Amino acid sequence: MNYLLAILLPPLSIVLTGRPIVGILTFFIWVPALIFSGGLTHPMFIILAWLLIFQSREKHS
After folding, report:
1. Per-block average pLDDT, block size 10, for the chain (61 residues)?
2. How far apart (Å, rounded) are the C-alpha atoms in residues 61 and 46?
3. Per-residue DSSP letters for the chain?
4. Residue 59 confidence (pLDDT)
């Protein structure tokens, strides 16, 4: 479920993985990046969210 959320809203997904400060910083970088690049940078944020989700799952296992 969190992987799907990472596709739509990467900063929220990062916050839900237990990294609120990284999620807030990502949000303040993500919004201008979406506006100025027209969405071309969105995949970079999806990959970041997926890596953090994967890392948090391995740490809890």
Report:
1. 94 96 97 93 96 90 69
2. 23
3. -HHHHHHH-HHHHHHHTT-HHHHHHHHHHHHHHHHHHTTTTHHHHHHHHHHHHHHHHHHH-
4. 82
23 neighbors 61 (Cβ within 8 angstroms)? no
- Could you give the CA distance from residue 42 to residue 8 in angstroms, rounded to a whole number? 9
Residue 38 · residue 31 · CB < 8 Å: no
For residue 18 the two structure tokens come to: 């237990």
Q: Which amino acid is at 12?
A: L
